[in-house]
Amino acid sequence: MKNYDVVITETLQRTVQIEANDRDEAEQIAKEKWRKSEYVLNENDFKSVEYCAYEYARNREKER
Which of 1, 23, 6, 13 is nearest to 43 (CA)? Predict the structure, then answer.
């Protein structure tokens, strides 16, 4: 048997309404609110999951 490193990537997604003058400002406001933890995504915001397996390589351990 071989060993594999499996990368698991979860995507969380939530839509919020922002009042702004334009799209760039709306995104900036959302980023600031997210950074201030006004938006905290959780399991209710789950969108998808991906799995990607790589054959384990001992040489990678030596490079670290």
Answer: 13
